[in-house]
Amino acid sequence: MSINSNFPNKDILEITFLNEPDFYHISYQNRDFLIVAKDKDINTNLIGITITGEVYYLTLADTRVCYIANNIDVFIAELLAFDDYMKHEPNDLSDFSDELQLSQFANEFRNIILKLDKSAFEGNNEEDTFWAEVCEEIEYGIL
Fold first, then answer.
1. Number of other residues whose CB lies within 10 A of the CB of residue 62
2. What's the CA gap between 37 and 57, in Å, rounded?
3. What is the pLDDT of residue 23?
């Protein structure tokens, strides 16, 4: 599988993209993935692309597979949207005074992601998707 995408040249959400010569294949939970990125600090958390092009977040330590996007270009657009969205909002979400404000902030971001990928929040349940977890962290003021 050849990737012709322009990856962000900085870490976003602690995700570090590999250079194309460093991509590698793994079989995980009966599926084959091309690994194109990893968590900056946790080498067992990986970003993998299936043969059909869907992108997943793999956490090898606890055997989780979370849907991210229907293709790598959408994922890159989502990451850049996250980066841009967070730049235009308070640097510290704890500045928000109540849960309602945090919830509204997360919902606005959900809508941005849904414009890029209508299936971004569809998994076995909401926690099975990468962007659902990111939005939950926004709601709790973690990000």
1. 7
2. 9
3. 94
Dig out the tokens for 15 from the structure.
């995700």
DSSP state at residue 12:
B
| CB atoms inside a 10 Å sphere around CB 82 | 19
Instruction: Return the DSSP state at 32.
Output: E
Residue 60 structure tokens = 């090898």
Is residue 90 very low, low, confident or very high in pLDDT (cuts 50, 70, 90)?
Answer: low
84-86-90 Cα angle (round to 5): 135
pLDDT value, residue 92: 52
Q: What is the pTM of this model?
A: 0.86
Instruction: Find tokens 């293709």 and name the residue.
Output: 71
| Domain extent listing, the chain | 15-139
Give the E-state strand segments of 13-89 in sequence order: 15-17, 24-28, 31-39, 45-49, 55-59, 64-69
Cα–Cα distance between 127 and 136 in angstroms, integer? 9
**CB environment 89-124: b (16+ within 10 A), e (fewer):** eeeebeebeeeeebeebbeebbebbeebbeebbebe
